[in-house]
Amino acid sequence: MAIVETPYLQLARDILEKGHPKNDRTGTGTRSLFGYQMRFDLSKGFPLLTTKKVAFGLVKSELLWFLRGDTNIRYLLQHNNHIWDEWAFKRWVESKDYSGPDMQDFGHRALLDSAFAAEYQKQKNFFCEQVLNNDDFASKYGELGDVYGAQWRHWKTRDGKTIDQIQNVITNIQEKPDSRRLIVTAWNPEDVPASALPPCHTIFQFYVANGKLSCQLYQRSADVFLGVPFNIASYALLTHLIARQTGLEVGEFVHTLGDAHIYNNHFEQIKKQLARDAKDAPKLWLNPSKKNIFDFEMEDIKVLGYEPHPGIKAPVAV
């Protein structure tokens, strides 16, 4: 295999060396670059970072959640995936039904106050238990609105119908592989105000050449330390899955970033990561008996030969 994460490591170096100081909606502050592009040759290995451990189980469960058309975090919690918790939790603690301790600005306060951090964790654990075990609570507060699952599988039309963009793009890859309209979009201006987090992955496009399927993602906002490693692996996996269903080999994953940023409280973590030597990329294994993208379960997807450096923790900006 080969080292395939080099473009990501170069992105991080470029932001640290050339990035612009920026304010952001979370109040954390970032250093960022605009209009950056990375290319990953998927035939040379699966682009799961080795300079820090990336929890591939979380990548799998999130992507399968999207492909189910699901927008409720219950499925994620059932697979021990907590990467969307904070946005749902925020809706609950800001609602009239919440009667616990003040949780305003919980993301920052938990970093500065250990007593508050313990109370925050207690409230979030309660919240997750309720989503898992209480149907009414899950329906009301586990729901994130029209995030990716809805946009990909149930795009709402003016006449009240829905469009399954994923199925449509698969059909078009099979029937019209040279089309320049092999596109899935998640950005709908009408839905943005009601979304827990407006789509960062606004649009992606597929391209077929020489029997290979490539994918390009345009990501408007990119958290380079925490989010982008997951995003790379997720869209690489999606490309593999759609290639499997359409009978193609994999080509490139092209990742185009709008605002590519490192949060000010992630600088030490990214420097620690950059000081490590990258290793050979792992290999992706897909259950050979599965072909339809919607039939895959967690156990049907694995990475082989993944021996990364230890993970590096960092706070999530909400």
From TrEMBL:
<feature type="binding site" description="in other chain">
    <location>
        <position position="231"/>
    </location>
    <ligand>
        <name>dUMP</name>
    </ligand>
</feature>
<dbReference type="GO" id="GO:0006231">
    <property type="term" value="P:dTMP biosynthetic process"/>
</dbReference>
<dbReference type="InterPro" id="IPR020940">
    <property type="entry name" value="Thymidylate_synthase_AS"/>
</dbReference>
<dbReference type="InterPro" id="IPR036926">
    <property type="entry name" value="Thymidate_synth/dCMP_Mease_sf"/>
</dbReference>
<keyword id="KW-0489">Methyltransferase</keyword>
<feature type="binding site" description="in other chain">
    <location>
        <begin position="220"/>
        <end position="223"/>
    </location>
    <ligand>
        <name>dUMP</name>
    </ligand>
</feature>
<dbReference type="GO" id="GO:0006235">
    <property type="term" value="P:dTTP biosynthetic process"/>
</dbReference>
<dbReference type="InterPro" id="IPR045097">
    <property type="entry name" value="Thymidate_synth/dCMP_Mease"/>
</dbReference>
<keyword id="KW-0545">Nucleotide biosynthesis</keyword>
<feature type="binding site">
    <location>
        <begin position="180"/>
        <end position="181"/>
    </location>
    <ligand>
        <name>dUMP</name>
    </ligand>
</feature>
<feature type="binding site" description="in other chain">
    <location>
        <position position="25"/>
    </location>
    <ligand>
        <name>dUMP</name>
    </ligand>
</feature>
<comment type="similarity">
    <text>Belongs to the thymidylate synthase family. Bacterial-type ThyA subfamily.</text>
</comment>
<protein>
    <recommendedName>
        <fullName>Thymidylate synthase</fullName>
        <ecNumber>2.1.1.45</ecNumber>
    </recommendedName>
</protein>
<feature type="binding site">
    <location>
        <position position="223"/>
    </location>
    <ligand>
        <name>(6R)-5,10-methylene-5,6,7,8-tetrahydrofolate</name>
    </ligand>
</feature>
<comment type="function">
    <text>Catalyzes the reductive methylation of 2'-deoxyuridine-5'-monophosphate (dUMP) to 2'-deoxythymidine-5'-monophosphate (dTMP) while utilizing 5,10-methylenetetrahydrofolate (mTHF) as the methyl donor and reductant in the reaction, yielding dihydrofolate (DHF) as a by-product. This enzymatic reaction provides an intracellular de novo source of dTMP, an essential precursor for DNA biosynthesis.</text>
</comment>
<feature type="active site" description="Nucleophile">
    <location>
        <position position="200"/>
    </location>
</feature>
<dbReference type="GO" id="GO:0032259">
    <property type="term" value="P:methylation"/>
</dbReference>
<dbReference type="Pfam" id="PF00303">
    <property type="entry name" value="Thymidylat_synt"/>
</dbReference>
<comment type="subunit">
    <text>Homodimer.</text>
</comment>
<feature type="binding site" description="in other chain">
    <location>
        <begin position="261"/>
        <end position="263"/>
    </location>
    <ligand>
        <name>dUMP</name>
    </ligand>
</feature>
<dbReference type="GO" id="GO:0005829">
    <property type="term" value="C:cytosol"/>
</dbReference>
<keyword id="KW-0963">Cytoplasm</keyword>
<dbReference type="GO" id="GO:0004799">
    <property type="term" value="F:thymidylate synthase activity"/>
</dbReference>
<keyword id="KW-0808">Transferase</keyword>
<comment type="pathway">
    <text>Pyrimidine metabolism; dTTP biosynthesis.</text>
</comment>
<feature type="active site">
    <location>
        <position position="200"/>
    </location>
</feature>
<dbReference type="InterPro" id="IPR023451">
    <property type="entry name" value="Thymidate_synth/dCMP_Mease_dom"/>
</dbReference>
<feature type="binding site">
    <location>
        <position position="317"/>
    </location>
    <ligand>
        <name>(6R)-5,10-methylene-5,6,7,8-tetrahydrofolate</name>
    </ligand>
</feature>
<feature type="domain" description="Thymidylate synthase/dCMP hydroxymethylase">
    <location>
        <begin position="7"/>
        <end position="318"/>
    </location>
</feature>
<dbReference type="InterPro" id="IPR000398">
    <property type="entry name" value="Thymidylate_synthase"/>
</dbReference>
